[in-house]
Design goal:
With 168 residues, the chain is of the alpha+beta class. It has one domain: Thrombin, subunit H (Beta Barrel), CATH 2.40.10.220. 17% of the residues lie in helices and 42% in strands. It is built from three helices and ten strands. Strands 4-6-7-10-9-8 form a six-stranded antiparallel β-barrel. The radius of gyration is 16 Å and the shape is globular. The two termini are 20 Å apart.
Length: 168
C-alpha cells in the first residue's frame, strides 16, 4: 500500500476505485443518501468526552461494514457501544483504500439477535467534536481526526498524485 505523506489514506499500487466493479447499490427509500451494500472490515476506537476532556479507548474494536453512504454507515460488531458517543473509524473499502481517523457519531445500537450488535453511525465533522472539547484536546489524539468527506477528497488527491507519478 502507498501511504500519502499528508494524510492517512492508503491506496494499493495499481488499483483504482474508478477501474473497479461498482458496489451494489441499495435503493434509498426516501433517505438523503444512496446506500452501498458491502461487506468490509472496520476497526474503531471509542471517544469519550467528559468535562471538556477527550479520552480515546485503548482497545481497538473490530467489526464489519454492512452498508455505507455519504452520510454514515451500518456496522456489525460483537461489542456494545454507547449511543450518542463518538468513534474514530478505520475503514477498509473494497480492500483498495484504507481511511483512518474518520470521525463518527453513534446514532443507534441494537442487538442483531445473534449475539452481535448493529450500530448506526453518522459521519460527522471535527467541528462537531470541538463543540464539546477544545481543538488542543483533539490535536493530542494519536490519529488525525477528519470528516468522511475530507478523507474522500484525500483519496482523490492521493490517486491523482499516484497516477501522475506513474505516467512520468
Amino acid at each position: 500500500m502507498i501511504d500519502s505523506k499528508d494524510s492517512e489514506v492508503k491506496i494499493k499500487p495499481g488499483s483504482s476505485a474508478l477501474e473497479q466493479t461498482p458496489f451494489p447499490l441499495k435503493t434509498s427509500h426516501g433517505r438523503k443518501y444512496v446506500r452501498i451494500e458491502l461487506s468490509s472490515p472496520i476497526g474503531f476506537r471509542l471517544l469519550k468526552c467528559k468535562n471538556g476532556k477527550l479520552k480515546l479507548s485503548k482497545d481497538r474494536t473490530t467489526g464489519e461494514i454492512l452498508n455505507l453512504s455519504e452520510g454514515g454507515m451500518l456496522l456489525l460488531t460483537d461489542s456494545p457501544v454507547p449511543e450518542d458517543g463518538f468513534m474514530l473509524l478505520t475503514l477498509n473499502l473494497n480492500k483498495l483504500v484504507v481511511l483512518e481517523g474518520v470521525l463518527g457519531k453513534i446514532k443507534r445500537m441494537e442487538p442483531s439477535g445473534e449475539g452481535d450488535f448493529l450500530v448506526g453511525v453518522e459521519f460527522t465533522s471535527r467541528e462537531e467534536l470541538e463543540k464539546l472539547t477544545s481543538s488542543e484536546q483533539i490535536e493530542r489524539l494519536p490519529v488525525r481526526v477528519a470528516s468522511f468527506d475530507r478523507k474522500l477528497r484525500e483519496i482523490i488527491s492521493s490517486y491523482l498524485r499516484i497516477s501522475e507519478l506513474a505516467t512520468r
